Amino acid sequence: METRAPFVVVGAFVLAAIAAVFGFVYWLHNTGGLGPRVTYHLQFDGSVPGLLVGAAVLFNGIRVGEVTDLGLAPDSPRRVNATISVASTTPVRSDTKVGLEFQGLTGVPVIALEGGKLLSNSGAVPTLIAEPGAGEGMTQAARSALLRVDTVLADNAEPLKNTIANLQVFSEGLARNTGKLDGIVAGLERMTGASAPVQKITYDLQAPRNQGPAAKTIKGQLAIPEPTAVAMLETQRMLFSPASEIPGFSEFLWADTIPKLFQARLIESFENYDIAHAPLRTTDVGQADFQLLIDVRRFRVAVDAGPEAQIGLSARIVDKDGKVVASRLFDESEKFDKVEPQTAVAAFDAAFGRIARSMIDWTLQSQP
Fold first, then answer.
1. CA angle in degrees (0–180, nearest 5) for 282-285-290
2. Cβ partners under 8 Å of residue 141, min gap 6
């Protein structure tokens, strides 16, 4: 018996200490700390969903106390009475506003007090009346709003139906008279002087054909990358020297930018000579045996020279190791009579044809 007594005493002391700690934590959590407290009575005209005894009381967002009592008013089935205990330093006045807030994801309800305009307390604070709808949660507010919208729609169902019917009649009328509306718009454009968008005209280069049987074939795989050029030549417009706006060329467009158009028609020229051994674009072949590198220097109409179409470029043949096998400058021009798109394009066709034939012969002769 004597050996067990100390264990009983120790166990009882431990249990008492644990109970004291839990009691202190609970008291501290509900009272919000030490200090004098003041009790106030609140009145809610409506439901207070989820509000419990012990719920926090906030004043301007700061916790100052807790709910100590909740009950139904015996003289009114709609009213709820609450009692709160807050720190005595809380500036509760007779005009303090009372509401219910829902905090966190779970929507825990707390009583929210908001300071009024009175700076000093003129006497005992009467029962604080909560604002109408203070206990209405977000779901209830959304339901009320939808109910009001439904009421408005129900009250105006007939006018809305008539409006939709009129819109349908109007759209059907527009569909039946589309042609007339186009005519009206065209007439307004003519009346106001507005002009329709100008349709661009696309022109292309012609690769030389009928070059006869291939006397010599290309050795290995030849690739032609996209030619390099200055930014001015990266265009589809006709270029003039000196630079100027020539009447009749405002709607002119080459079929592609000048370097890409030159590449496409040069490959076509090689194909017309010997399609079985024609070069490819670098994007269409893995490791080429040779590359024909071209830098376009001139592709313009020289107005002061007659006029004439001028094409100038440099060409280099390099092997797979990057060694230059051969290099040459090509320069051709073709005069024409009238500065207009058709004659200018025909002059470029003639100049390009001579360059393409010369480049094919030079490429075949330069290969080791």
1. 65
2. none
Q: Which residue has the tokens 């604002």?
A: 131
Provide the angle, in degrees to the nearest 10, between the axes of the packed helices 138-155 and 157-176: 70
Q: Residue 218 class from Cβ within 10 Å (0-12 exposed, 13-18 middle, 19+ buried)?
A: buried
User: Judging by beta carbons within 10 Å of its beta carbon (0-12, 13-18, 19+), is residue 87 exposed, middle or buried?
Assistant: buried
Phi, psi of 38 (to 5 degrees): -130, 140
Q: What is the 3-state secondary structure (H, E, C) of 23-57?
A: HHHHHHHHHCCCCCEEEEEEEEECCCCCCCCCCEE
Q: Which two tokens stand for residue 346?
A: 């025909």
Mean pLDDT of 18-26: 70
Residue type, 5: A
**Confidence band for 1, pLDDT divided at 50, 70 and 90:** very low
CA-to-CA distance for 250 and 254, rounded, in angstroms? 12
Share of the chain above pLDDT 70, in %: 86
**What is the rounded CA–CA span in Å between residue 84 and residue 87?**
10
**Sign of CA pseudo-dihedral 180, 185, 190, 192:** positive
- Interatomic CA distance for residues 257 and 75, integer angstroms: 91
**How far is Cα 277 from Cα 266, in angstroms, rounded to an integer?**
14
Q: pTM for the complete prediction?
A: 0.49
pLDDT on residue 37:
83
